[in-house]
Amino acid sequence: MITIRKNLMSQNPGEIIQEAPYTWVDARDINRDDISQLEEQYSISSELLADIMDQDEQARIEKEDDYIALIVRLPAMADDCKGINQYAVPLGIVLVRDTVITICQSDSIVLEDFAKNRYRQYPVQTMEGFVISILGRAVMVYIRLLKYINRQKSQVEEQLQKSIMNYELIQLLQIQKSLVYFSTSLTTNEALLERLLRTPYFKLAGEEERDFLDDVITDNKQAIEMANIYSSILTGTMDAFASVISNNMNVIMKRLTIISISLMFPTFVTGFYGMNVNLPFMNNPFAWIGILTFCGVSALIGGWTLSDRRNARLVQRSLLGARVTEKENRRKKRKKRSLPD
């Protein structure tokens, strides 16, 4: 869908509201008919439109005969994302004469804010300032989504501490993918922002726009550091929880092994009395009571012998004995040193 809009140059209370001296052509959720209209009416090349439609296209700027084209990476529509999976989409910005054309294959909260005039203190008086404003707003949305992802990560970690299923690990994997997408998009946007300072055909109107571009570069670097830090912490968290789950599984297998070994003693006794030979107490009608009692006692003794608590106590006693022995050895050495030659 293609919509022609006008930006308001003043959003501060008490000031006169004026329209910017350029036209904004907002093309979002475009189809084949919209692409044909952009090619015919604004003479945009099909190769550039194909690059904008590519989901993996990286940020860059290029100069053509009739226009200047930029491709930036924007976060997806955050308000419509019901899950924790976030992603970034390419946005094409074409500067042709007195018109700014933004082309995006999906929707974005950044474009929605400018479409509804939900912005303040952004230099939108010129087309170049409007481009910088889009990049600055995108960085703010990136930072907000990174904080949202970090909160979701903390909630999943709390759930993972009480669960041994794979669902929480899959959620952490989705968060990891979102952080990788954000980190890659922010890195490519940083290269574009650095180039805007040196590009001669992208002329800034004054010091205000240049200072604002410097602030956007600083905020973009902060967002990159946040994404890298969250990604590193999440990687360590996933490894730690994977080790915890593996350790819990080993504990369960150990307990099952103890139970199976403890039941070997009753099995041996019952198997012995199952032989067709003369055995003690075989003619006693109450012998089965004694056999069952012996089997139960042997199973209990075997389980207690192999239990974790008993092994832990034995380890503590052995450590305590080693400490006592070490202290005695130290005392003997001191006595030998104190004796005269």
What is the topology?
Blueprint: E1 2-5, E2 23-28, H1 32-42, H2 46-53, E3 60-63, E4 68-75, E5 88-96, E6 99-104, H3 109-115, H4 127-160, H5 167-198, H6 207-262, H7 264-272, H8 287-305, H9 308-338
Parallel strand pairs: 2-6
Antiparallel strand pairs: 1-2, 3-4, 4-5, 5-6
Helix pairs in contact: 3-4, 4-5, 4-6, 5-6, 6-8, 7-8
Describe the structure.
Keywords: Membrane, Transmembrane, Transmembrane helix. It holds the Pfam family CorA. Belongs to the CorA metal ion transporter (MIT) (TC 1.A.35) family. Its main location: membrane. With 341 residues, this protein is an alpha+beta fold. Helices cover 61% and strands 11% of the residues. It contains nine helices and six strands, in the order ββααββββααααααα. It has helices spanning 32-42, 46-53, 109-115, 127-160, 167-198, 207-262, 264-272, 287-305, 308-338; strands at 2-5, 23-28, 60-63, 68-75, 88-96, 99-104. A six-stranded mixed β-sheet has the order 1-2-6-5-4-3, sandwiched between helices. It is elongated, with a radius of gyration of 36 Å.
Short synopsis of the structure:
Keywords: Membrane, Transmembrane, Transmembrane helix. With 341 residues, the chain is an alpha+beta fold.
Estimated radius of gyration? 36 Å
Strand order of the largest sheet: 1-2-6-5-4-3
Give the name of the CATH architecture of the largest domain.
2-Layer Sandwich
Number of DSSP E strands:
6
Run of helices and strands: EEHHEEEEHHHHHHH
SS field, number of helical segments? 9
- CATH fold category name of the largest domain: Beta Polymerase, domain 2
The average pLDDT is 77
Q: What is the CATH class designation of the largest domain?
A: Alpha Beta
Family: Belongs to the CorA metal ion transporter (MIT) (TC 1.A.35) family.
Protein name: Mg2 transporter protein CorA family protein
GO molecular function: metal ion transmembrane transporter activity
InterPro entries: CorA-like, CorA_cytoplasmic_dom, CorA_TM1_TM2, MgTranspt_CorA/ZnTranspt_ZntB
